[in-house]
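Researcher: Next sequence.
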Amino acid sequence: MIRCLLVAAVVWGAGLWPAAALAAGGELRVTVDEAVALALEANYDVREARERLAGGEGRIQEARSEVLPHFSLQADYSRRYDESILDTLEGFIAPEQRDRYGVRASVSQLLFSWGKATGGIEAARLVKIQAAYDLAAARRQVKLAVHQAFYDLLLRQRLVEVARERLDQRQRQLDVAEKRFAAGVVNELEVLRARVDVANARPAVSRAENRVRQAVARLNNLLARDQGAPLEARGELRYSAEPAPELGRVVERALARRPEMASLRQAREIAGKELGVARAENKLNVYLQGEYGYATEEFQRLGPDREVWAAGVRFDWPLFDGGRTRGRVAQAASRARAVDIALQRLAQAVALEAKVALDDLKEAEEVLAASSLNIEQARKALALAETSYKYGVATSLDVTNAQLGLTSALVNHAQSTYDAVLARARVLAVMNDL
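Model: Next structure:
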């Protein structure tokens, strides 16, 4: 029994470890999928949208209260004193003060409201559905933001490796120059030039390392962690080319699946319901009302033998409200038209977003293919230059130029890989398939 409890505790603790590390700001090693999963739980935008969804149930409950009976309990006490009787009867009857005590319960039930109450309930239900779509939209945006921050971190880590490799190459060139100078093959200028190249390569390493720290802070921010908390991205910046979907299919899928579109459609339905509610403001309302209790002028006699009750139906039909209903109708109609315009604008923006994403993906794949071939050629050129310099056939300037060429090729390839990976993620995000 004890062993089973220990095993269960270990399993439970292991399941909570990522959440605990996330909350405490401890060291975290995550893949892109793990980072997305953590962000969907902890990100501030997602949590805020989730709270708005939770508040939707309260709004429905509030709207439903209009069609449910309302009960209330009242107790009152009043004292009346009137001296006007002195003027009427010339002081023959002395004024008196009278007390009144009462306690009663009342009930009111809406019977008919010309669709205002039911329209309010339906609008509240639609608001909650819209909040669910808004939550899905927030999740979509966070997914794309985490992918971008994660891949940016991988890119920055790769650029640190490139900067360090360049520094090592410069150091090797300095070692060769010092040996050749000691052998009397070259003059001191070659050594000084090599030392300058080493010194110039060190700041690039520092800058690249700082970019890594900034990328970590951005990713931590999306995960709602302390920006300085240790974080390691597990994975490799690699791109596998796949056939890109056609523009028409991307746009069609985006318009059908994007939660932003669904949210605006719900907003249009809400505006229609609110317009109906506004039009019912000056229409007939019917209430069933009842009251039962006790009332007396002497507190000690307050009881069942001093019964008071009333029951009836109240008709409430505002004949003139100063134009308030007309103003509310105009506002609701305007909101409905504004949502229609927003739907058209978003549909056009989604189509443009799809085209730009596909164009960027095509460009990134072409640049990546060219940069991949360039790396191999740059490495061969550097190896040839270093060998030639060692045997006195080439100058240090030739080696420096070859090193710059390789560094540029490596940086371009890393950047091109990042661009292609991110472009693919954006295409998927446009269709809400990320």
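Model: The domain at 27-72+112-286+339-430 is CATH 1.20.1600.10 (Outer membrane efflux proteins (OEP)). Residues 1-24 have pLDDT under 50 and may be disordered.
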